[in-house]
Write a structure and sequence with these properties.
six-stranded mixed β-sheet; five-stranded antiparallel β-sheet
Length: 543
């Protein structure tokens, strides 16, 4: 099967002439039939390679114009293209198109107005056998096109991955195919590309060189990749060749792109259509992975992913990439991780949440990563978020029934993986303690997070000092509140007045209790080291 518009385009290219007449470009053609001296009959050849050769007329000569013959207008003529002559006064077979050899316009200059719809005529004489070969080539080309689409679909279904899909695509396209994410790193390529001018290898991954990214940005290619939904090609002066690009979209978001160098053969019109089908197949494959499904299409997401996963070693590479993305961060950085109270609350309005976060936090980069929202905050102020931003974030976390963990601040972006791990462990600790609606700072929960992440529950209990256990038992037996008094004193930075206010007791009552605690534990009130051990013990007891 082929579309009539594609057949017409091939004939006009082959003969270098325009075909006159109007036609339905999306008319589907399955068979070729010749006009003979006996009418609309002759040999019927299907364009799938099964026809051996075309028939000429009874004398074996070229079929000429002006034949008149009865016409079968049955519905079964749909999808048949007739090659041969045609008389201006005869009706057309239903659903078919007759291509006329010869120049009818010499007889009547208004031939285009007289030709019925779907009847086409050459401005100059056309050899019937050449017309037949061109039409059959187009139908065969479409059959092969669909066979290769089926091969890609089979690769998708069989779980062959991105590489298996582009291997199947290569058998049709015949030129090297490269699949990249929006961080301009190569996900897969087949066959192995030789474009060392554009790409370099870092940490077992291939990235586009900064100079090449800047060149693409200057030429408007990056904008076209993100905005164009169709395949397009451009001439790359640096490579002295054409490259075809097509964005890979998940829903309406760009997850990456596929490109192809014009290396082994020149691009054809059908290559563009095939590249678009390939991009759709890759989109389906990518959606099998939550890594791609979580992407919201923002151009810095893959950069942030590489940063978190430690794919950048040299600080220079990081700063070059930030410059390419036109992102200017501050001197100090923090990782924020946000999780939903209920796992089913996530991914309902991802893009909206991302937009809200980047509105609240100036200079923040946000993405969905491993089921959570990850935000990189940068500032020239060592304190991080301003008080107004902190208030808005608290409201955001509470409103969306989330929990947020904040890492220590750091000043070297290549250390991001360590601080991401810090925030991740704090987030897990907070979730285990059902601390929804809260913002947890690592500096406030450092000890708890370390103990919780490094030791099982039974072993964590061994960190509790025997004095703390003794004091707890004493309270239970004597109905006192000494353990809480000691904890409040330590929580108030060992400030007796502040502790008394928090306990809602007079300061003289506080000092009575504290002296009694020192007596029971046989402790000097000024023993800072012992008090520190008690503080660790009580924090371990909270886990």
């Amino acid at each position: 099967m082929a579309y009539l518009e594609d057949i017409v385009a091939r004939l006009e290219r082959r003969f270098g002439t325009k075909l006159q007449g109007t036609y339905d470009g999306r008319l589907k053609i399955d068979y070729i039939r010749f006009r003979t001296t006996h009418g609309y009959g002759g040999r019927s050849c299907r364009g799938d390679g099964s026809g051996n050769s075309a028939e000429r007329n009874d004398a074996g000569a070229r079929v000429s114009n002006g034949m008149t013959a009865p016409v079968d207008t049955a519905d079964n003529d749909k999808g048949i293209i007739y090659i041969g002559g045609w008389n201006l006064h005869e009706p057309m077979p239903k659903g078919c198109c007759a291509i006329i050899s010869g120049s009818q316009s010499q007889v009547n200059p208004d031939i285009r107005e007289l030709l019925p719809h779907n009847v086409l005529c050459g401005e100059t004489p056309l050899d019937i056998m050449e017309v037949y070969e061109a039409v059959q080539d187009e139908i065969l080309s479409y059959v092969q096109f669909n066979e290769h689409k089926e091969a890609m679909f089979n690769a998708l279904q069989s779980g062959s991955g991105i590489r298996g899909i582009i291997q199947a695509a290569f058998t049709f396209l015949g030129n090297p195919v490269i699949v990249c994410d929006t961080s301009f790193s190569i996900l897969e390529n087949y066959p192995e590309h030789e474009n060392v001018l554009d790409f370099e290898r870092r940490n077992d991954k291939q990235y586009m060189r900064p100079a090449s990214v800047m060149s693409m940005n200057k030429e408007g290619l990056i904008e076209r990749i993100f905005n164009d939904k169709s395949a397009f090609s451009v001439f790359r002066q640096e490579l002295n060749t054409y490259i075809m690009y097509c964005s890979i979209r998940i829903r309406t978001n760009v997850a990456g792109y596929v490109c192809m160098l014009e290396k082994n053969r020149k691009f054809t019109r059908r290559d563009f259509e095939f590249m678009e089908v390939l991009a759709q197949m890759l989109s389906v494959e990518m959606q099998k992975s939550s890594f791609f499904a979580e992407k919201s299409g923002l151009k810095y997401e893959y950069f942030l992913t590489d940063l978190v996963e430690g794919n950048y070693v040299n600080p220079e590479d990081i700063h070059e990439r930030m410059a390419q993305l036109e992102y200017h961060g501050g001197r100090y950085h923090w990782i924020l991780l946000l999780a939903f109270e209920d796992i089913y609350d996530g991914h309902i309005h991802n893009e909206y949440l991302i937009d809200q976060l980047t509105t609240i936090i100036s200079g923040g980069l946000a993405m969905f990563y491993r089921g959570n929202i990850c935000v990189l905050v940068s500032s020239d102020d060592r304190k991080g978020m301003e008080s107004g931003e902190q208030f808005k974030m608290q409201e955001f976390v509470a409103l969306n029934r989330m929990i947020m963990a904040v890492s220590y601040g750091y000043d070297k972006l290549n250390e991001t993986p360590a601080y991401y791990g810090q925030a991740e462990q704090l987030l897990k600790y907070g979730k285990s303690r059902n601390m929804q609606g809260q913002i947890l700072l690592f500096e406030d929960y450092c000890l708890e997070t370390v103990l919780w992440s490094q030791y099982k529950s039974a072993r964590r209990q061994t960190f509790i000092h025997p004095d703390i256990k003794f004091l707890k038992e004493y309270d239970e037996s004597n109905h006192t509140d000494y353990l809480n008094t000691l904890y409040t004193y330590l929580e108030c930075n060992r400030n007796a007045v502040a502790a008394a206010e928090k306990l809602h007791i007079h300061k003289s009552s506080f000092f009575y209790r504290f002296n009694k605690i020192c007596e029971l534990l046989e402790m000097d009130a000024g023993d800072c080291r012992r008090l520190f051990v008690y503080e660790i013990s009580m924090r371990a007891g909270r886990i």
